[in-house]
Amino acid sequence: MRALYERAPSLLQDLKVSIHDSSLVFPNKEAERKSIFLSNIDQVLNFDVETVHFFPRNKDYPAERVAEKLKKTLAKVLVPYDFLAGRLKLNPETGRLEIECNGGGVGFVLGSSKCALDEIGDLVYPNPAFSQLICKTLDFLKPADDHPLAIFQVTSFKCGGFAMGISTNHAAFDGLGFKLFLDNLAAVAADKPLAVEPCNDRRLLAARSPPLVTFPHPELLKLNTPAGQESSPPVFEATQDDLAFNIFNLTSDDITHLKEKAKATHAANTRISGFNIVTAHIWRCKALSCNAENNMERLSTILYAVDIRPRLNPPLPASYSANGVLTAYARASCKELSEGPFARVVEMVYEGARRMTDEYARSVIDWGELYKGFPHGEFLVSSWWKLGFAEVAYPWGRPRYSCPVVYHRKDIILLFPDINQGYGSNNGVNVLVALPSKEMEKFQTLFHNFLA
């Protein structure tokens, strides 16, 4: 077992992208003008998520035809997704963000690169130059608050392949909602009905009246600290650390091996899933590599997202298009992570997700109504592993690879599907880690030792 990359591959620093046209795409039917409620989960996610989807050459669908088809398709899809054509605004009476459903449209940008797709190199490896395939703002829009919730950029490569870069405000979608949107986009582009009718009723996750917090929530950080006390910044505030980064690969065989280790001593009711196994393995490595003072009593808290759609009573529709995930947590001492059985670490990860019952989720949402806080922990595992963006079948084919534009953060570890193993149910996973160099060396040693 080794890190996937012993040293960073040679990366193109400049994809030589030229922008040829920027415009807006409007819904092809006028929607009702209204203000759309945003849940307390949506409220704290007012930032952009950038994804890039790479496509090889398709002689029947050159990039110009794809762009034309995509533009017409968006005009149709923005009817059932009317909120996406709106604008975020702050309601001065309630102090809450809302979406003004005004048909303002989404951005659409055409570009070209002087590079061939194969010249970019390994698509799995994070390349800062991928940001050139994303448009973050449309300069022709004034005033500044007229900012689309989504901007699409189609960039052609000289080989005939192309990239579809999409910037979306996280308040609009979570990963599952975005995958559903892409499925619908692909279906309509193929002149088919929507794959699934989206459920856009965000009041399904409204707080109770009055709010009722029935659990302690150590995974959340209050921002309204008492007067005179210094408030702590959110745990995921960007740092200025000089970070090394690497991608570690766990093959299907590695994951099976870790499962067997856990099954040897696991509790009967613990779910030995791929995610739980990989997350437990990463947790041990990360917590111990950052334990500079070797304080084995130090507590480490790991955070990870849990889909609450099927966990509520009644369940949310699977087609719920907005943010339907909450942050679960697990906490243990460094001693327990280092010396305890691996099965117990897996069990704690599983217990964190199992804690997310209907009442717990409602308690979190109500907590947000009272305190306007953020997730709080040592680090977050953000999984893109099973979202399936590269499985979406567009008329011009499936993506060669789909990934977020990555900004290296010490407090966020990312999971990606392994491009070399396909997208089966037991495929491998790539783990992106960014740490100061000494911590990275220790992480890598632990990663290998715990896998043995």
Automatic annotation (TrEMBL):
Stored InterPro entries: CAT-like_dom_sf, Plant_Fungal_Acyltransferase
Q: Which organism is it from?
A: Carpinus fangiana
Transmembrane portions of the chain: none
Which protein, by its recorded name, is this?
A: Omega-hydroxypalmitate O-feruloyl transferase
Which GO molecular-function terms appear in the entry?
acyltransferase activity, transferring groups other than amino-acyl groups
Q: Which Gene3D superfamilies match?
A: Chloramphenicol acetyltransferase-like domain (3.30.559.10)
Pfam family name, one:
Transferase
Q: Describe the family membership recorded for this protein in Swiss-Prot or TrEMBL.
A: Belongs to the plant acyltransferase family.
